[in-house]
Amino acid sequence: MQNLEPILIFTAVAEMGSFTRAADSLGIQKGRASTAVRKLEEDLGVRLLHRTTRSVQLTEDGRIFLARGRDLLAEVDDLHSMFAGDGVALRGRLRVDLPTEVARTTIVPALPAFMATYPELELELSSTDRQVDLVQEGFDCVLRLGPIRDETLIARPLGKLRMVNVASPAYLKRYGVPRSIEDLQLQDHRTIHFSTMLGARPHGWEYPDGDSYATLQLPGALHVNSAQTYEAAALAGLGLIQAPLLGVGRYLESGVLAEIIPDLRRQALAVSFVVAHRSNLSRRVRAFMKWIEEVLTPYLE
């Protein structure tokens, strides 16, 4: 495995386009990463990277070596863990990104059991509602909500999150309780607009229409880009929202939010476990994927 370290370092540098980011993700000094790649090039007798003060780019030889190197690392990891049972300790660092509300309400509260099972595993947990770049930002795996549009990523569908339409009692007292799509328009209802990037076209009010789904554009003066702010705005009586039951279920139980038009819920939200490449499916990643699927199962359909 020691002889494979230069290949591992080179792969990280090539994928992230940076010695600094690669060193940080591997937990080593930048100088060590630079030395390892330079020595690898000397041993191979070819230049793998074009280096400038601002960027690191693959040469043609580097692209060929990267593809083979990824496959080699994946095979070695599979071989190394072939006979490892669940009781064998997992070690090393695992860098993960999760949607903020899923992390806050479901994953983090369940983490003590996972960390107790794998006490030698170091977990770096990011939570954001934007779509991170797995390679450039050095993530081993991410949990994604919604469709996966990047065909270069490897995604394992876990299921779909049940969605609900909700509003605060104060809002419903002011505008009335809608019982149909027509009521949403006739009663002058307002929605809280959500999009991961402010300025982008917000998602409309989605509802089932025959065998598919249609979208209604409702008025609304507030635009937000985080799940927590989206829910907080509904709690404040600023408008209607469509959100996963996973996040707002506790508010429905306590009565601070109420469900509306339950027979016209928006399409369930796809949940996927995503890695950048097959070589990212290490034993650490596979263990985390299995655990996170078990945690989310009660909320999926």
Distance between the termini: 42 Å
Question: Overall mean pLDDT score?
Answer: 87
The helix/strand series, from N terminus to C terminus, equals HHHEEHEHEEEEHHEEEEHEHEEH
- CATH superfamily of the largest domain, by name, is Periplasmic binding protein-like II
Strand order of the largest sheet: 4-3-5-14-6
The fraction of residues in strands falls at 15-25%
The beta-strand count equals 14
Q: Which structural class is indicated by helix and strand composition?
A: alpha/beta
**At CATH's second level, what is the architecture of the largest domain?**
3-Layer(aba) Sandwich
* Helix fraction by DSSP (H/I, runs of at least 4): 25-40%
The coarse silhouette is: elongated
Counting H and I runs of at least 4 residues, what is the number of helices?
A: 10
- What's the structural domain tally? 3
Query: What is the CA-based Rg, rounded?
Result: 23 Å
Largest beta-sheet characterization:
5 strands, mixed
CATH topology term of the largest domain: D-Maltodextrin-Binding Protein, domain 2
Low-confidence stretches: none
Account of the 3D structure:
The chain has 301 residues and is α/β, with parallel strands linked by helices. It has three domains: 2-80, Winged helix-like DNA-binding domain superfamily/Winged helix DNA-binding domain (Arc Repressor Mutant, subunit A); 92-151 and 279-299, D-Maltodextrin-Binding Protein, domain 2; 163-267, D-Maltodextrin-Binding Protein, domain 2, CATH 3.40.190. It has ten helices and 14 strands. The protein has a five-stranded mixed β-sheet. Strands 12-7-13 form a three-stranded antiparallel β-sheet. It has a two-stranded antiparallel ribbon with strand order 1-2. Helix 1 (5-16) crosses helix 2 (19-26), helix 1 packs across helix 3 and helix 1 (5-16) packs across helix 4 (60-80). The protein is elongated, with a radius of gyration of 23 Å. The mean pLDDT is 87.
